[in-house]
């Protein structure tokens, strides 16, 4: 990806010490942005990501915050504005699963996933939007006054038995993203989502760890490979850049065709 694409921009990535967030933070740094690496557990991993980003000659630091905690999100963005001057790109990526069939799912399992995956993105978007509106457009930096990228999932539109909390959170992210896109577009703020398919990260290790599991998974992927975190990271860089300046309120599925109803390739 072009090393100059995001030169001079300041990005924050939540859940950036693992998987997709980690690859995204590194790719944003490679594209020339200064990057805040948010994490909630695992400070050593976060510091390693910071070191990789700094090697591109940009600024970076790690910041511990729970995205579902309002005070911690407010403080995280306030510190970024103080230390880096502002924020141009918010990547609301942090997410988790607490899987269970409906009848066995506890309220705590439901609530935790909604709190992190949906409320966390709301809080991050709100705090970023306040700063985008305060600062406005800086033409030398970007055509937009700010970019919010919500990490969604194919489960924004694909139902998922045994994961009603997760699928509901991502369905909610889709409508939140579109509503915020409509509300913030007049302020020249672009809000969009990336919908990953099956990406090789710790969140779904069971689905790709053994050859048998991977073969099962490939039945759902027309393009016939499991995705890598870098597939998503590159899509985020493109979405954050002015190459996508007229893209507002879109979900870009980066899924090897998973949302093409692959079962219909041989039947239906
Ligand atoms: P991951 O488990 O590797 O990373 C998730 C990150 O979020 C971790 O760094 C974790 O510590 C962090 N996190 C969890 N709770 C947090 C909190 N309260 N505050 C701050 N950070 C928190 O998994 P991943 O696959 O990289 O997932 C990243 C995002 O991509 C998630 O939103 C996930 O739903 C989405 N996604 C992943 C896949 C996939 O196949 N891996 C597919 C679709 C969507």
From TrEMBL:
<dbReference type="Pfam" id="PF13561">
    <property type="entry name" value="adh_short_C2"/>
</dbReference>
<dbReference type="InterPro" id="IPR020904">
    <property type="entry name" value="Sc_DH/Rdtase_CS"/>
</dbReference>
<dbReference type="InterPro" id="IPR036291">
    <property type="entry name" value="NAD(P)-bd_dom_sf"/>
</dbReference>
<comment type="similarity">
    <text>Belongs to the short-chain dehydrogenases/reductases (SDR) family.</text>
</comment>
<protein>
    <submittedName>
        <fullName>SDR family oxidoreductase</fullName>
    </submittedName>
</protein>
<dbReference type="InterPro" id="IPR002347">
    <property type="entry name" value="SDR_fam"/>
</dbReference>
